[in-house]
Write a structure and sequence with these properties.
Blueprint: E1 2-9, H1 13-21, E2 30-33, H2 64-84, E3 91-101, H3 102-116, E4 124-126, H4 128-134, H5 136-139, E5 147-158, H6 160-174, E6 178-181, E7 186-192, E8 195-200, E9 205-212, H7 217-224, E10 231-237, E11 241-243, E12 251-254, E13 266-270, E14 273-280, E15 284-285, H8 297-302, H9 308-319, H10 322-333, H11 339-348, E16 360-362, E17 369-375, E18 380-382, E19 386-389, E20 393-397, H12 406-421, H13 429-436
Helix pairs in contact: 1-6, 1-12, 2-12
The structure holds flavin-adenine dinucleotide.
């Protein structure tokens, strides 16, 4: 049986970032284990998410404190892209804005702009004319000039799938003891003495510490090792519609409904093709661990998320709230044939008033799954990523903005892991500061 210091389970952008972050330590042997044949093919695949590098400047569902915390972590991803992606193979830069429609939303945006501008000096507050210049389709045919926007000239659209590959390649190239195994599904992780045995069909791996960044599967692994009994999964699938013609020049978000914790529909150009406009994501609860993979239904049941306590929590935190219930029902309609597109076009008209349902095409097999987590004891929905710290093991579940913060959080995990391994292991703070803080 092979033996390593650390095993990282999952080769999405989070597991890959963890793997890369461990190159900033003196840990000698690390293996990344991914069930598919390449990194970043599931939620991190660029077709399955909105490709936005969230830094908190235009996300009206973030408080100032949350926005700054997200920015702090997301800056690592930005710094990595600035340093290693001159060619634009991993990302593009577009302008981005959050649009306020009508007096109430304009008031929300103005107040937010005043609060945020000192922390995000690049932000501008735009009125109708300025919006019209940047995004003509947003103003064309609009009945009222009552719109405004918080605008950033530089927003990153990231191909998180390719970013995952870049992290893995760079780690393997730079450190001899780092290896990646693809096409290798982890069946179980069990403890044996002070170590873990990671069981796969291609042989077992013994590890002193483990980071599990396997999306929704992380929760099942955690439960099997005796953790997270209080948690249940709420997998929220997100689909997209493509516009037949280019409609936007940059990313256009809308003001968040405070009663709905999931991000509102927005319009985005594709990271690698500015001529393609995509709208979404929708939000539909599905009993799966991985979108479009119906074999994962069994594992979803095994997480206990269909048990009585989980269903009661779902009722308490989602279904009993009129605004959230209405949001969920509306989102289910979006995926129905014919009427779905009509309903979706109606929502998109907040961004592009002249859009008709014939201008949109449902993007088949596009869109991933956000592994949202519910706390059955506290009866609450936990927003953003959830981390469970065990004895020498970390489990990560990473709905949005998990991809944006992957590297910053990966460095946090790397520091935790050297703490697990003992005093002879350390994190190279000097190299980290030189690369990411100067
Ligand atoms: C519709 C949608 C829109 C989003 N938009 C954004 C956005 O704009 N910006 C943003 O920051 N985030 C966004 N997100 C969130 C983002 O996609 C995720 O945070 C990110 O991709 C999570 O990365 P991950 O590595 O944790 O998960 P994944 O990419 O899902 O990777 C998990 C990996 O674990 C592997 N795995 C699972 N089980 C096993 C096993 N048993 N053995 C071995 N390997 C296993 C899987 O094959 C997979 O490769 C969005 C998500 C969705 C669904």
């Amino acid at each position: 049986m092979a033996g390593v210091d650390v095993a990282v389970i999952g080769g999405g952008v989070k597991g890959a970032a963890d793997f890369y972050a461990l190159t900033y330590t003196n840990v000698g042997s690390v293996v990344l284990i991914e069930k598919y044949g390449a990194p970043g093919l599931v939620n991190s695949n660029m077709m399955n998410n909105s490709q936005t590098l969230h830094i908190g400047d235009i996300e009206t569902n973030f408080s100032l404190a949350k926005a700054l915390a997200v920015r702090h972590l997301a800056e690592h991803t930005k710094a990595y892209l600035d340093r290693f992606d001159d060619s634009g193979a991993l990302h593009s830069v577009y302008h981005k804005m959050v649009l306020g429609v009508g007096r109430k939303e304009m008031g929300v945006l103005k107040a937010r702009f005043e609060q945020f501008r000192q922390h995000y000096p690049h932000l501008q507050y735009l009125g109708f004319e300025a919006i019209a210049e940047l995004e003509p389709k947003v103003t064309e045919g609009r009945e009222s000039r009552g719109i405004s926007a918080i605008f950033s000239p530089r927003g990153y659209a990231v191909d998180y799938g390719r970013l995952a590959k870049s992290f893995v390649d760079r780690a393997v190239e730079s450190r001899e003891g780092f290896s990646a195994r693809f096409g290798t599904e982890v069946a179980t992780i069990r403890r044996e003495g002070l170590e873990f045995v990671v069981e796969t069909a291609k042989g077992d791996v013994r590890a002193k510490a483990v980071i599990v960044s396997a999306g929704a599967q992380s929760l099942l692994f955690a439960k099997r090792l005796g953790y997270a009994r209080n948690l249940a999964l709420l997998p929220v699938a997100g689909s997209f519609y493509h516009a037949r013609d280019k409609l936007l020049n940059g990313k256009v978000y809308t003001v968040q409904d405070n009663d709905v914790p999931l991000a509102a529909i927005h319009g985005d150009p594709e990271a690698h093709d500015a001529s393609v406009t995509r709208f979404g994501p929708t939000a539909k609860v599905v009993p799966l661990m991985e979108r479009h993979n119906y074999e994962t239904l069994d594992d979803f049941v095994r997480t206990g998320s269909l048990g009585k306590a989980s269903l009661l929590t779902f009722w308490e935190v989602v279904a009993s709230h009129p605004a959230l219930r209405a949001f969920m029902l509306k989102n289910m309609v979006y995926e129905l044939p014919v009427v779905g597109k009509m309903a979706f076009a109606e929502t998109v008209r907040k961004i592009v008033p002249t859009v008709a349902s014939k201008d949109l095409v449902f993007a088949r097999n596009v869109g991933g799954l956000r592994p949202q987590v519910m706390d059955k004891v506290k009866q609450e929905l936990q927003m953003g990523q959830v981390k469970i710290l065990g004895e020498n093991v970390i489990f990560n579940m990473t709905p949005s903005p998990g991809a944006s913060v992957c590297l910053g959080d990966g460095f946090a995990d790397a520091r935790t892991v050297v703490g697990f391994l003992g005093p002879s292991f350390s994190f190279d703070e000097r190299k980290y500061s030189a690369d990411f803080r100067e």
